[in-house]
Write a structure and sequence with these properties.
- It contains 12 helices and 17 strands.
- The protein is α+β, with helices and mostly antiparallel strands.
- It has 3 domains: 84 residues, Rossmann fold (3-Layer(aba) Sandwich); 66 residues, Dna Ligase, domain 1; 182 residues, 2-Layer Sandwich (D-amino Acid Aminotransferase, Chain A, domain 1).
- Strands 9, 10, 11, 12, 13, 14, 15, 16 and 17 form a 9-stranded antiparallel sheet that branches. It has a 4-stranded parallel sheet with strand order 3-2-1-4, with helices on both faces.
- Strand 9 and strand 10 form a beta hairpin.
- Helix 1 packs across helix 10 and helix 2 runs parallel beside helix 3.
- The longest helix has 18 residues.
- The two termini are 40 Å apart.
- The mean pLDDT is 95.
- The structure holds adenosine monophosphate (AMP).
Length: 368
């Protein structure tokens, strides 16, 4: 079976690496000249809206998916009209727009931080009166890794945030403002839903960000919020008639979950599952998309994942740490860019902590 993937970044690369043992083949569509999945399958290097490229893409595969959530809606419509597209295009419509996401969470009775849409400078003052300070202003679309965001702590911050995100530099960018959550933890729940509606859930993952970029993910054992996170993820997945892996990111404040966002795709906070679970998020996504029975989402021992940001340590230093599994994405070093990750596994919590401390120190010593 040939799987068409919209996007050919590191997530596409890891999907292909998981798919080859299952005898799946891949075709990618991505406009980038240096897409890092390109060496793993036929790659159509054209814009997402190029009609000839879309026709070629659809003619080359049996079923389509995406690894990039900002695929234009028209692309998803064209592909979805010709082929089974999983997750369905509606998941993109929701996942691409923070306001759509929040409205859906509200409709499904999933708690969210207070928020208000903001389309003009005047509306920002009103939104802040409603939401309060501190708050976070975010562009509704195209934000990632902390980009398209500003923290508002005092009234004087509003002008600057507006001119940066919604005003002079990017006129008429629809934004929203949400309450700043003084969270104790950030958790994500990775769920997979098969074509037949069966759902499985990975252990929830505790995520540590810096400068809006994910640094470390640690799957939790028997977390008290596991059942609640699964319930919320199930509500969203069933509502969207979802097929594939979905990531749901939460803030934990006073022991309660508050929805932050969903990603309608495999997710960075699930990379640990390649070595740390029975069946990785990448394999399970492909199983769902291909109509195969889902694999076990159970953890195998203890594990944690550390991102290489900007630059990766050299292999000799990484491989010298016991239990480390290295993943380079084939990307050129660049400040703030995710260029790879490592997962560290161990048989006990204490051993994991020792190895993780060593790995984090090594990764941080070269990060930029
Ligand atoms: P996001 O792109 O929305 O996932 O935001 C990136 C990171 O910024 C989050 O993982 C948090 O660490 C931080 N952040 C975003 N929104 C809020 C908020 N409302 N309150 C506190 N921290 C936030």
């Amino acid at each position: 079976m040939k799987i068409g993937v919209l996007g050919a970044g590191q997530l596409g690369r890891m999907l292909a690496l998981a798919g080859y043992p299952l005898d799946l083949q891949f075709v990618f569509l991505d406009p980038a000249t240096d897409a890092c999945a390109a060496s793993l399958g036929e790659t159509i290097q054209q814009p997402y809206l190029d009609e000839a490229a879309l026709a070629r893409f659809c003619a080359s595969c049996d079923v389509a998916t995406y690894e990039f959530e900002n695929v234009p809606a028209h692309t998803a419509e064209v592909v979805g009209a010709k082929l089974p597209l999983y997750p369905p295009a509606v998941a993109l419509t929701v996942g691409q727009d923070r306001l759509n996401e929040k409205k859906l969470f509200d409709a499904l009775n999933i708690p969210v931080p207070r928020y208000m849409p903001v389309a003009a400078r005047g509306a920002l003052d009103m939104a802040i009166r409603n939401v309060g300070l501190p708050a976070v202003m975010k562009t509704r679309r195209l934000g990632y890794d902390g980009k398209g965001q500003a923290v508002l702590r005092k009234p004087e911050d509003l002008d600057d945030a507006w001119s940066r995100l919604g005003g002079a530099e990017a006129p008429h960018t629809p934004c929203l403002v949400e309450a700043f959550v003084p969270f104790e933890r950030e958790l994500s729940c990775l769920a997979v839903r098969g074509r037949d509606g069966e759902m499985r859930f990975y252990p929830v993952v505790a995520n540590q960000h810096r400068d809006g970029i994910l640094r470390v993910s640690i799957p939790q054992q028997d977390d008290p919020l596991q059942a609640q996170a699964e319930d919320y993820a199930r509500r969203v997945a069933e509502h969207l008639n979802y097929v594939g892996v979905m990531a749901f990111e939460f803030f934990v404040s006073e022991g309660q979950l508050y929805a932050n966002e969903i990603a309608p795709r495999v997710h960075n906070s699930g990379h640990w599952s390649i070595e740390g679970s029975e069946c990785s998020q990448f394999e399970n996504h492909l199983r769902a998309v291909a109509g195969l029975p889902l694999g076990s989402t159970a953890a195998r021992g203890h594990s944690a994942m550390v991102n290489f940001i900007g630059r990766a340590p050299d292999n000799a230093a990484l491989c010298a740490i016991a239990g480390v599994h290295v993943h380079h994405y084939g990307k050129a070093p660049k400040p703030q860019r995710k260029v790879g990750h490592a997962t560290v596994t161990a048989n006990s919590e204490a051993e994991l902590q020792r190895r993780l401390t060593e790995l984090v120190a090594l990764v941080e010593s070269v990060a930029s």
